[in-house]
Amino acid sequence: MRHKSGFTLIELIVVIAIIAILAAILFPVFAKAREKARQISCASNMKQLALAVLQYNQDYDESFPMGGNYGLGGWGGRVYTYVKSTGAYKCPDDPTGVDNSVSPSRVPVSYAMNSNLGLVPGIAALNAPASTVLIFETQGAVADVTDPVRDMPYDSGYNPGNQRSSPSGNGGDGGAGWIDWYYGAKYAGSAPNKTGYGNPPCNVGAQWYTSNPVHTDGSNFALADGHVKYLRGNQVSPGQYAQSSTDAQSNGCGYAAGTDALSGKFGATFSGK
């Protein structure tokens, strides 16, 4: 008689256990690889937007794309002609969806401009463009970036009761700052547990930060010379323009570190001096 061979119960359990162990090892690796791909895609978007801002800066007499009476809110609609794609305004890790409650719809804007740059005439006026934040990551903002009139803060007089625009901020603008005033946006590159940018962290209010950095341990930042850099929240100094390029970051959320005071502590600053 011929006997059919097959797996015993013990052998089957061992095979299943081996597969489970391999899955436990490989799944985190796959997840990290997927997140790295999203980070790279996000960096590509930021690069396009940074180049668009630099082109705008050249075409408009060294001015930045200011969309209202304060800060740089509404910048997205002013550079759209150089980008020509609403998809470039959304990071793959931003869960914000399209707002169809109005027509035309508002699209997610995962990036914000450094509002401090509204105080200078252009890139040439910055002390160290390669160390100065130009664009940083946010979540929760929507705007009609295809129309510069609609992508405008409500203080400019357009539809004040229902306005949303591409945001701006300086990393330390809690309370009634641009990023958190009426856009519903949050900083997406702070340190874990909503402690904010900076060292020491500028904790202006946990409600203005995402729970964790958007890309594992940090987020992407476009610098004013056009290059994009991945940094942790504590490697970016937030706040208003430094009084001097050699000033350290002030405690709390007063002034960002000057561009000559970054070595060994910060990779970038919201100050242009």
From TrEMBL:
Q: Where are the transmembrane segments?
A: 12-31
Record region (Disordered): 152-171
Q: Where is the composition biased (Polar residues)?
A: 159-168
Q: Which residues form the signal peptide?
A: none
Keywords, A to Z, come to: Membrane, Transmembrane, Transmembrane helix
- Kindly indicate whether the keyword Amino-acid biosynthesis belongs to this entry: no
Q: Cross-referenced InterPro entries, in alphabetical order? A: DUF1559, N_methyl_site, Pilin-like, Pre_pil_HX9DG_C
Matching entries from NCBIfam families are given as: IV_pilin_GFxxxE (TIGR02532), pre_pil_HX9DG (TIGR04294)
Q: PANTHER family from the xrefs?
A: GENERAL SECRETION PATHWAY PROTEIN G
Q: What is this protein called?
A: Uncharacterized protein
Organism encoding this protein? Capsulimonas corticalis
